From TrEMBL:
Domain called HTH gntR-type: residue spans: 22-89
Protein name as catalogued: Transcriptional regulator, GntR family
CDD domains: WHTH_GntR
SUPFAM superfamilies: GntR ligand-binding domain-like, Winged helix' DNA-binding domain
Pfam name, any one: GntR
Source organism, top-level taxon: Bacteria
Entry keyword set: DNA-binding, Transcription, Transcription regulation
Length: 250
């Protein structure tokens, strides 16, 4: 009888190999996304595959697979014969994306107020206290991570799969801008106050109030981002930014 022992691998081996490849793929995507979100790879920067492979300790194949995922998310632009670049959003794209995102956040809050469980509220409160601790330690990545997890949990608590997928799709392109918008300590403190109001609205099941807070929270973040990009004084109000939108769209 012919020995086929070496002709095919055991199913358990194939399963382990598949899991390891999936873990590597997810890990590379996460690391590369974080480099973009936290500004290590700036908008418009060309991605050097050799340097990234050395930094991440991987070969070019998983790196290129990860780039394709991030290109689908809108974080990377891949140009034939030119390579890959970190996506750069125009002022108009930023304005319109945050405008839509503010509506999605507001809807999430309105639905979550009706559907969230006491356990989920407790989890959000714990994240809020952890966020405050990060603020005290000037830990921006830790602060931002918990901040975004709070918004994510409110969206999940809305229990609407269509809203969920739309929210995730648009938010991916805004992650780097949302991270950068917290560089000033005053913005950290303002966000903490908004989050305290969010928690009160959740606890009282006040959907309209929570929706209004989330909408205002996102639009103020948008205005702060556009001011920073334009180099305008931080004291400029949202009305001046609103007037700039017409110019940006022209």
């Amino acid at each position: 009888m012919q020995n086929t022992e070496n002709e095919s691998a055991p199913s358990s081996f194939l399963a382990v190999t598949k899991v390891e490849r999936m873990r590597l793929h997810d890990t590379v995507v996460t690391h590369l996304r974080n480099l973009i979100v936290e500004g290590a790879l700036a908008p418009g920067m060309k991605l050097n595959e050799r340097e990234l492979c050395e930094t991440l300790g991987i070969s070019r194949t998983p790196l290129r697979e990860a780039m394709k995922v991030l290109a689908a998310e809108g974080l990377i632009d891949i140009a034939p014969n030119r390579g890959a670049f970190v996506s750069r959003m125009s002022d108009t794209e930023i304005w319109e994306s945050f405008e839509v995102m503010s509506g999605l956040e507001a809807m999430s809050g309105e639905l979550a107020a009706m559907r969230i469980t006491p356990v989920e509220i407790a989890e959000i409160k714990a994240l809020h206290y952890a966020m405050i601790a990060c603020r005290a330690q000037n830990d921006l990545p830790g602060y931002y991570s918990r901040n975004q997890t709070i918004h994510n949990k409110i969206n999940e608590a809305a229990r609407n799969s269509v809203l969920r997928q739309t929210y995730l799709s648009i938010n991916r392109r805004l992650l780097a801008l949302r991270f950068k918008s917290n560089f000033q300590a005053g913005k950290w403190d303002s966000a903490i106050q908004d989050h305290e109001e969010m928690i009160k609205a959740l606890e009282t099941r006040d959907g309209p109030r929570l929706g209004a807070i989330l909408r205002k929270h996102l639009l103020e973040k948008r205005d702060a981002i556009l001011r920073d990009l334009a180099g305008a004084p931080a004291a400029a109000d949202s009305k001046s930014t609103a007037s700039d939108k017409t110019t940006a769209a022209a």
